[in-house]
User: Fold these one by one.
Assistant:
Number 1:
Amino acid sequence: MILELKDYVGDMKRCARCSLCKWPPLAQMKSWRFSNNCPSIARYNFHSYSGGGRMALGLALAEGRLDEITDELLNIVYRCTACGACDSSCKYNAELEVLWPIYSTRAHLVGMGYLLPEHSMIIESLRKEDNTMMQPKADRGKWAEGLDVKDLSKGEKAEVVYHAGCLYCYDPELSAIARDTVTLLKEAGVDVGIRGSQETCCGSIAFQLGFQGEFIKFAESNIDDWNAAGVTEVITSCACGFGIMKSVYPLLGKEMKFKVLHITQYLDELIKQGKLKLSRSLSMRVTYHDPCNLGRKSETYVPWKGEEKKVLGQFILREPEKIVHRGWNGIYEPPRNIIRSVPGIHLVEMERIMEYSWCCGAGSGVKQTMNDLALWTASERIEEAKSVGSEAIITACPWCERNFKDAITEAGDNLMVYDIVELVRQAL
Amino acid sequence: MALRGDIYRLFESVVGPENISDDPAVLRSYMYQPFGAKEGVWADISPAAVIMPSSTEEVVAIAKICNRYGIVFKAMSTGWGMHNLPGVEGAVSLDLRRMNRILEIDEKNMYAVVEPHVICMQLQVEAMKKGLNCHIIGAGSNTSVLASATSVVGYGPDGLSMGFSGRNLLGVEWVLPTGDVLKLGSLGADSGWFCGDGPGPSLRGIMRGWEGAWGGLGVFTKGAVKLFHWNGPTELEMKRTPPNYVLKEPLRFFKVSLFSFSTIEKLAEAALKLGEAEIGYFISRLSPSFVGLQLASGANYVATWNTGMLQQMLKYAFLFVIFANSEREFEYQQKLLAQILEETDGQTSPISETKEMQEQTSTAVIKVDAVVRSCFRTTGGFNTSFGSMDTVDLAMNQIKAGTELKDKYINKGVIMDDGGDNSATLAFDQGHLAYTEMLIMYDHHDRDSAEGACQYLAESNQACLDKKLGPPIFQISQIGKGKHGAFGPACFNYDSWLRKIKGEFDPNNTSDPTAYASPE
Amino acid sequence: MQVVVCIKQILDPEMPRSAFKIDSEKKRVVPPQGIPPVISPFDENALEAALRIKDEHKAKVIALSMGNRLSRPLLTKALAAGADELILLEDTVFEYLDSFASASVLAAAIRKIGVADIVFTGRQAADWDSGITGCAIAEELGLPCVTIARKVEVNRGQMRIERVIADGFEIVQAPLPCVITVDSDLGGLRHVTLQDLSSARKKPLQVWKAGDLNMSPPPPRCELLDLYVPKRETVCEVINGKTPEEAAARLADRLREEGFL
């Protein structure tokens, strides 16, 4: 199994409680206003709601120090978008795993049967309907109705499969972007197919909520299906899907005969090769929001397995040396390259970007089950976008886009939100 | 020990239900405190509740409830270290996280007014936008500006040019243990924040004295701190260079140099002379171990250490940073430095000019952002021992005594072999004073190591008495009860003064005395 | 009318095979992290049976579960589905009991409840599949027992039960009170909404320890000698033929040879 709390006891015991997990990497802090990196501690304030606080509770659970699993414990564990900002900030100095102990704490509680009812409903929907949206499986392919594209589930063959993901399939407002994506790829001459109603969830939410049994089922079946379809590349425009396929799928030990690419990587290449020409000028000052799962969380995770040796008296040396995932190798440049290649557009950066980007607030089931936290988190990002004089916020994940749009509607704001694919379509 | 329901509801009526908790999970997370001298990471005593006030008025209301019902309280800012937790059963923790505003940056008079949870890095980035900079303590920029100014020590190696927290403190708003509000300095005379010592009452000595009351004398809710001229850009751009972020562009008139000396006496002499010359931005005695850990991964560090290169190169070394305002001043400072080095046989270390050293160190010096890398990453457990804010000579004697004692424990294998002399820091307060603290690293989850570290600390405390090295800065308060009593008789019975102050200011002993002193 | 349903918390029988681990020394299954326990599926059928009786006759339904460290979020699903009360028999001594000891604890609890016109259980629990507990409860309480029910009705003080048999079903009648074990043919548990789950938190939940029942579970009557995961060996053999017909004929021969046909 991938998530075992005991595997992280060493990290949890060595948290220095220095609170670095509560800020962007200190050297990257740029203002008081945007000096938080973790939505959860910023919103709820108790130390418990930080990366370090959650490590302490994970350790207490692993050591059997919590006699009672209270509702508040579940709040602490789940009122968190698992965005991984705490993890990047800790890696900067202490080099501890923070995010995976959080996942593992969730898996531990799930194993004991401590779940939030809202999460049970999502998992039930996954089990019965193969999606997290509580929608019928039969409707999954509807987004592509009338679209001239190969359907691999009907035995057709294609070089590349486009994985739309649950939100694009079922959100009527957003599914146009999935259609646009397929159209774009086809226009650029890509031999692309979809899996229609046979496409299933990537399992990301199940994994992040700690339901790893459910995750493994979906991940394995997706890998099998894509292997069987004989595709060389799996492209998705959902950052959450991309993140999990890239960072966690390889841990299952199954051969993946395909490459996983996010649409921004693909489009960036197509533009560089001249297969897509962005000629229409869009005169706009925009900023780009790095989705956590496309950025810091997309590095393939290599769990440390080895021996802790004492050298120089008490120096704890990990052998083999631990790979430190700083989040520096996320997909940061391709989306920026695309935006910059749109004529007339002016890209300005927000304060918190790349591996220390502020989360949109939707991740890890928070959007579906704790919308107030999701919207508040988004509103903080919207303020940040406005603070750099941006007219629009561009992102590359449907969850970010949905959440930003909802927050803007709620606040009656006029900031525009675009997916990068929408931007490219407009600029063609 | 749980809080009575009716008292809990009184606190709740002050801060609102979302800002108070006695849930076991919340309390348990607050009990995780690895930074203290003991085995393991869990505090023995749980707070009865954690309360998060958002204003002075709320702190006052909480203190009054505590006095009425005999509840002990203890406030924390960022909460790093065992001393932040109450040391008695049934006490409430005041987490001041919601009091996090920078209320004012007065550019003309060069000060900032902050609440307790403003961390040094927040203040620095805002100050730099106005061409100003703030002093950052050696523990790092992740710590509270106000806490080190009002309550705990407050030294930092940029103190060569930017004083130290205790001195930089100007006007203060102080909620006394009784819940009364006292305004110190010019603030007490309704004259703004600009001065700590008048017009209006100056109680700097009572409020914090030498090293602070460690949260044992009420809560400091607002304070003004002095800011200093910053000659760099208003925003520092960083780039990624493993293992850390470093300045994208070198700063003008900024130079990092690493020097070593043949003996510790020579090093002390150089420090004194540099102090007298009043040059430099930052000075820090850097141990081979500290530097090595800043730059390397665990395995690389061990490999380098085993070659003996670091130890040889950095035996008696210090880091000196010049940050001048003009070309001429830059040259002047360099010339003076060269002269002092010549007089004291100081050698420029071979790694001083390397790109890594220049890049990593420049950033670490300005941002003080990578302390955890050197202090906690290796073993998890960390503490400091011999130390003072006194003369350069005393600092050197402490280093010698510390190295000697540490060697004994290193040979036993119970603390990390960092070469023994792992002491931080040097001249501060424009060179007039010297600071030191002797670091130890140990594994607090390893019984032998934890016990060894505790024995070492006890023995080092005794050595301070026996060898007349002064009370060790952090140890008196971290360990808690009784330590002032142990050092008092050797130091003009200062502890009886602490007890009297405590009795006068806190007749009900409501503000947790554990890290400070009890009236009796 | 008062109906008691016994529901058992078990490890998810549909967990991925890679997650199933055994501690052969302790002879126990290791609960996997990240896979929530479930209510044994046949017990969900039993709960549905009870709720159908409630729908018809305004009966009070009490759900009863036994074990140690029981999952409230899981078992309150019974309340969300429509049970009126949940009683958890929770004690360290209630862990790892055999079917007979379980039945004796459950029977003691039912006696403590007082009135139980019908006791429903699943036909067997989906972890050990023994199928004993329901009958043993009846034995303990001295009540008639009807097993493997696919339909239940209360008619003028009598139970009318359709009971699954190998080639169909038979109809039996039983007096009240009685114990009935329920089959999946009865139908799945009704859909539970999020609102049901949150309102379930307001329904009564009691926890009884061994002391509350004035008993300690009897010693086991079954001894577990060994627990292991059977080794599965797969050999793939390709049967060829010049024509599909010939290949099919050879395949049939081969299967017969192996005794599969």
Number 2:
Amino acid sequence: MGLPPATSMVSMAETVIDVADLRCRYGDFEAVRGVDFEVRRGELFALLGTNGAGKTTTMETLEGLRAPFGGTVRVLGLDPFRERAALRSRTGIMLQDSGFPADLTAREMVALWGVTSGRRATEDVLARLDLQHRRDVRIKQLSGGERRRLDLALAVLGRPELLFLDEPTTGLDPESRQRTWDVVRGLLAEGTTVVLTTHYLEEAESLAHRLAILHEGLVAVSGTLVDVLAAQPARIEFDLPDRLDVTALPMLAGDVVHRPTGRVEVRTGELQDDLAVLLAWAGREGLRLGRIRAHHASLEDVFHNARTGREVVAA
Amino acid sequence: MIVALGVAELKLLLRNRTAAALAVLMPLATGLFFALQMDGEEGGWTMVVTLQLLFSFGFTVYVTVTTALTARRQDLYLKRLRTGAASDVVVLTGILLPVVLLGVVQALVLLGISVAAGAPVPARPDLLALALVGGVALSCAAGVATSGVTGTAELAQITTAPFFFALIIGGLFGSDGVVDLPVFLVPGTGLGSLVGAAWGGPTDQIGPAALSVALWAIAATALAGRFFRWDPRG
């Protein structure tokens, strides 16, 4: 499962977040329409979906900022809305928008947050996020990336046991994004549980242990990263040589689609076998298969299928 | 936590030039102007003191509370603070505290200036204290309520105008002597009447005046509970 053994042992034992039949409304509009999932201790759980899928609404409910319209939510065994005060010193939250007053400096903001978050600073968080040299600059003069890093610095202040990150890397340059990932990996290694939303699927693919993809307020896909990817067919693509009909292809385990462009696409659960059969056939017939590509499903494929309504449910 | 929030809020207030000018310089300048206008006419001082106090309540407390809360909400700072350990009451108290203190200090400084310029010492300081406490409470609650219906900090200049002028005009009515009871429905009348009575004016309307101040403070608090929002998204 890609987890260090010690973490796997723990993750089997304890559910940190339990969401059952969650429903959220804005007036008459039901943004979240019955969502279930759970997050286990020590894992990174990614909540994915398009804009308007219900990610942030779900996050804000977990964070205790809004009451659910229906269903139940338990965070560290508590009701996040009613028992917000008890949860705060144990959870770090990075909202989608930072929410900084423009005229405080980075250092003043860290000092204020050390008091109001209920979590005392145990290290120099500004140094950890490479903001040390900008500590006395007013927040309005920081760049977008620096503000996002300050935001992360505040969220991880005092090492909370549960961390919510709502699109932490949106708008960051590649280097800052990498630094954010390093910080998150460091926290995971220390045993922090992380709930992440992101629009960058490669980010989820490289960090997440388990995930759920929301679509129009419902869970379209959920499971461990490995299972979710394995449930999707792999793909082989190539250009069929001229004057050859698709019926000439050998028997394959997967489904064959012949596109009008002449490109053939094989969607298969048996990538290695089908590829071997195909290449052996081409070798025997002396054919060149143009621009051949073979790859396992990526989160991109899973995401696309979830949006177009092809149901995939991994165990 | 309240102290940390209050110190941060005071810094924000003083670092924003427009807000600082409106909250600090404006009432001081107008208050000073009123005091210097006086040429030793005996009865005029009541009006001067009333105006000084109401400008402190109106500008320093009411308009500043409205503008500050609206700006902090717009910045999503209020939303952020709710992700911390401070309860809603603590967050609001922390943000309001420096503004309230500023309003009280300013009112006292202006009164000091007036007395130094020749105004008589109040005959009933207890009534002055009542007006001070009531006025600050009422203006503060009204500011919280008004920020709930104010989308941006710029719009606060418009949304605060009706209550602000009602406060000043009512205060002038009230300080002028005995008024018809319905006039106490205007928010500043009770305050003006108490100030007038404190400086030797008629004291037979202390009851209705105190009642008017209390009812306006309660009504403003109720409206604050109804209209105040933490998140611009609602």
